[in-house]
């Protein structure tokens, strides 16, 4: 059974909407290493979660990157949501910036303890993700690092005054094509979102595995 590793019920809802019965939540709070990029955080987390669970795992690390703030809050999105809060982020953007463009990013990291085919992957060609995966090969020096496969999804939009009560986290202040993510149901959001795009790449690859 594939375990979707997260403490966040909103992420689980979207993963289940996409992957159905193939997946069940593993509520495990893996160690989040400090990095400016999501990929190494997800890769380390996937190794730790697989060692913990002994089953195939998929870790989901995500964040909101505001263009005019050089990507803030990015990998610190959960910390900033807990401390400043979503509404304060919205006010900061509105007051400080003329350009309110932003993007959501999601990196899914898969680990089942087995190695992957070394041939070039037809699905996941993102060089930056591949480079981060290679960098993430550093691990506990006593052991061989477990292989991890990464899938990234990105969606660009704008920060707006909060609308809607669906979704979770920063969804009410993130507008895509005229609607905020909080105004979409899980299926609609998956159709355009960072997580939906990463899940799509993962799903295509996993079906072959
Ligand atoms: P896990 O680490 O246990 O999965 P988390 O909520 O802490 O749960 P992250 O570390 O990936 O997840 O932090 C992501 C932050 O970005 C957090 O504040 C989320 O609310 C927010 N976020 C992630 N995906 C989102 C989405 O699709 N819509 C809105 N906010 C999102
Ligand atoms: Na987290």
Describe the structure.
This protein has 209 residues and is α/β, with parallel strands linked by helices. It is built from seven helices and seven strands, in the order βαβαβααβαβββαα. It has a seven-stranded mixed β-sheet with strand order 2-1-3-4-5-6-7, with helices on both faces. β6 and β7 form a beta hairpin. α6 packs across α7. 39% of the residues are buried. The model has no long low-confidence stretch (mean pLDDT 91). It binds inosine 5'-triphosphate (ITT) and sodium ion. Inosine 5'-triphosphate binds next to β3 and α3. It is an enzyme of class 3 (hydrolase). GO terms for molecular function: hydrolase activity.
Helices and strands in order:
Layout (H helix, E strand, L loop, with lengths): L1 E4 L3 H11 L3 E4 L11 H16 L3 E10 L10 H7 L2 H11 L4 E11 L15 H9 L13 E11 L14 E3 L2 E2 L5 H7 L1 H15 L1
Parallel strand pairs: 1-2, 1-3
Antiparallel strand pairs: 3-4, 4-5, 5-6, 6-7
Helix pairs in contact: 1-6, 1-7, 6-7
């Amino acid at each position: 059974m594939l375990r979707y590793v997260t403490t966040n019920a909103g992420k689980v809802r979207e993963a289940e909407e996409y992957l159905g019965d193939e997946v069940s939540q593993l509520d495990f709070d893996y160690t989040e290493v400090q990095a400016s990029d999501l990929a190494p955080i997800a890769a380390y987390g996937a190794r730790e979660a697989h060692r913990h669970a002994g089953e195939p795992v998929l870790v989901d690390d995500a964040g909101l990157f505001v263009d005019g703030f050089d990507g803030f809050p990015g990998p610190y999105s959960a910390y900033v949501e807990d401390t400043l809060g979503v509404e304060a982020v919205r006010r900061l953007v509105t007051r400080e910036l003329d350009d309110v463009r932003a993007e959501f990013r999601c990196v899914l990291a898969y680990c089942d303890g087995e190695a992957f085919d070394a041939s070039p992957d037809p699905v996941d060609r993102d060089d930056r993700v591949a480079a981060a995966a290679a960098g993430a090969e550093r691990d506990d020096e006593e052991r061989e690092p477990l292989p991890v496969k990464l899938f990234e999804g990105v969606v660009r939009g704008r920060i707006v005054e909060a609308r809607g009560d669906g979704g979770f986290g920063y969804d009410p202040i993130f507008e895509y094509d005229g609607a905020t993510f909080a105004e979409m149901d899980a299926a609609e959001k998956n159709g355009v979102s960072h997580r939906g795009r990463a899940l799509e790449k993962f799903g295509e690859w996993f079906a072959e595995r």
